[in-house]
């Protein structure tokens, strides 16, 4: 018999309301622009570099492309927003403009706006109109002056240099505060099958891109973080849901380094993790 609604048991604690709100985040970084038109793609390319470096918990990275209307709704739930876009003001190519908050007070009107002419300032104006009080108030915009926007061109040298500068600013001011802090020393393990095991906290803090170079020097194994997999090197693989990592170092070690636990030391001057070959007793 098919039960009627009166016969169906009620589920304890069931909430009829459906939450369709997007997940919030501490920092939203959006790169706007057209990847097919040379320097105009600097925003999405910058975001892709950030992806390779590894996003910390609480950060959301978005390739906004040319879909400015989508960018507006991506802002919902973000505490801080960073937008990177290209500019064509006639200034020297590679000039970086950091738009102050006072200039975001007066944004262009949306009346008669075509989707193909949508810019970063239109996206913010639309977000304020559509999201109301839910629109973030902490918004920072970086504009990079273009040298050329020819179809199919690569990023020009001055814009590439400027992009690197903005990358470091975004990392230092917005993403670094979200990254887990690791102690200068930590226990690691060399396994029988030639892997180096790192705890989740150490891996997230020191190797956010999950890419590294390993080398033997001064009776120690040095593990040096890379900016991303495209730089080559070794990949750190996730071992368990807790986020612990392992990296295969057997070829680097050769016949050195017996399996066992070591106390590793972070060398800030070298930007590397030093693992002594002598096993901890």
Automatic annotation (TrEMBL):
GO terms for biological process: protein processing. Keywords: Aspartyl protease, Hydrolase, Protease. InterPro entries: Pept_HybD-like_dom_sf, Peptidase_A31. Gene3D superfamilies: HybD-like (3.40.50.1450). GO terms for molecular function: aspartic-type endopeptidase activity; enzyme activator activity. It comes from the Bacteria. Belongs to the peptidase A31 family. This is Hydrogenase maturation protease.
């Amino acid at each position: 018999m098919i039960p009627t609604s009166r016969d169906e048991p009620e589920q304890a604690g069931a909430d009829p309301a459906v939450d369709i709100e997007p997940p919030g985040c501490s920092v939203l970084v959006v790169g706007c622009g057209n990847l097919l038109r040379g320097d105009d793609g600097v925003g999405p390319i910058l975001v892709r570099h950030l992806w390779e470096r590894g996003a910390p918990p609480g950060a959301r990275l978005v390739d906004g492309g040319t879909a400015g209307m989508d960018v507006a709704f991506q802002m919902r739930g973000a505490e801080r927003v960073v937008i990177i876009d290209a500019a064509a003001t006639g200034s020297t190519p590679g000039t970086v403009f950091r738009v102050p908050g006072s200039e975001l007070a007066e944004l262009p009107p949306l009346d008669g706006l075509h989707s193909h002419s949508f810019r970063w300032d239109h996206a913010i104006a639309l977000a304020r109109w559509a999201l109301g009080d839910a629109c973030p108030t902490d918004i920072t915009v970086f504009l990079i002056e273009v040298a050329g926007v020819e179809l199919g061109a690569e990023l020009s040298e001055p814009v590439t240099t400027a992009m690197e500068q903005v990358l470091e600013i975004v990392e230092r001011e917005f993403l670094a505060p979200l990254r887990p802090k690791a102690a200068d020393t930590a226990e690691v393990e060399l396994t029988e099958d030639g892997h180096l095991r790192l705890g989740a906290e150490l891996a997230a803090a020191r190797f956010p891109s999950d890419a590294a170079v390993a080398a033997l020097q001064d009776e120690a194994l040095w593990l040096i973080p890379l900016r991303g997999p495209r730089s080559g090197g070794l990949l750190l693989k996730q071992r368990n849901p807790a986020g612990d990592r392992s990296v295969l170092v057997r070829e680097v070690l050769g016949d050195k380094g017996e399996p066992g636990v070591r106390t590793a030391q972070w060398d800030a001057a070298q930007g590397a993790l030093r693992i002594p070959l002598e096993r901890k007793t």
